[in-house]
Amino acid sequence: MNKNYMVNEIKNEMKTCIDGINGDNLFERRSRVEKLFDLAELLYDIETETTYSEAPRVAVNDEDYYVGRVHLRLGGGTLGDDNVFIPEKVLRLQNIGEGDQVRAKVVKQVYNNNHLKNIYNYELLEKTTETIESERRVIPYARVLYDPDFRGLYIEGEGEDGIMRVNLEDVSLGNLNVGEGDIVDYAYWQRDPEGGRVIWIHNMDGENVLTAAYDNEPSPVEDDEFLEHLQLSVFGNGPVVSEQVNALKDGGSDVVHIDEASEENIESNLDGADLVLVYLNSVRPADVKRIRDGVRKRDLDVLFIQDEDFDNILSAIHDKLENSYYFDI
Hints:
By secondary structure, this protein is of the alpha+beta class. It has helices spanning 3-19, 26-44, 88-93, 239-250, 263-268, 285-298, 310-322; strands at residues 49-51, 65-72, 77-79, 84-86, 101-112, 115-126, 136-143, 145-147, 152-159, 162-167, 183-189, 192-201, 209-210, 231-235, 254-258, 275-279, 302-305. It has four domains: 1-44; 52-132, CATH 2.40.50; 136-202, CATH 2.40.50; 209-328, Rossmann fold (3-Layer(aba) Sandwich), CATH 3.40.50. It is built from seven helices and 17 strands. Helix 1 (3-19) runs antiparallel to helix 2. The relative contact order is 0.09.
């Protein structure tokens, strides 16, 4: 693949698109230009590469690092004025957000297609104490659905003006292989909800996730006797979670509530649980991963909760128990 040729073709397409802008197609052309720019990034890796002629001719040393505030992009982020790229995975694992101070240290340099590429180690130095507004918006933990009439995949989620639907064939998927039933995060700029991109596929079974957009709503539960003597480990915090934990206790369940999902708390509060509940909206992605790994290691049943309607949660708990060993003992 001739990367430079393809990038130049994209530049020419962008120029043609910009030259044709008028008052009637401004919104449409803006979305098109942003998608072309995303494609150019994927091809040319412009955030982290330097050309061979620009590359430093000295070995990597302790002074090869950058420090700055993070600016979020649709996928990942950039660091300060140096525009050092931070992958989306790093943002999630270290809970890095808009305006946080991060250090990116060059740990090695490798050749890639005759370019010298910096490989970084990232460290969160300081969480910002200011409220910094980012234009990036994210619909988290959206279930990928199939529309037989449309013959395509789509997601639904809470947008700026209520529930929004995004047809996935109209947005950038990058190098992600998205399929029906996947649980994904969709990022977009506030000014252009339909011009975003899928930035993450969660490594979790969609059958274990209760989302508000799930078409097959759980059947109503006639009574809550199944809650009696149920051993639950619940991860999450906030007034809604606390209220629902109390309701589960009132129903007769033995609930261990973990509002701070540290590694130690996760390891010490999973054993013996009949079911693990994880409120996704209040648990950091890195901690969700630790809980998921702990559940798999112990072969426990888990319900990841994004829909916080308590009746739906009860129905989903009942269904999980019905499909497990619980009602057989």
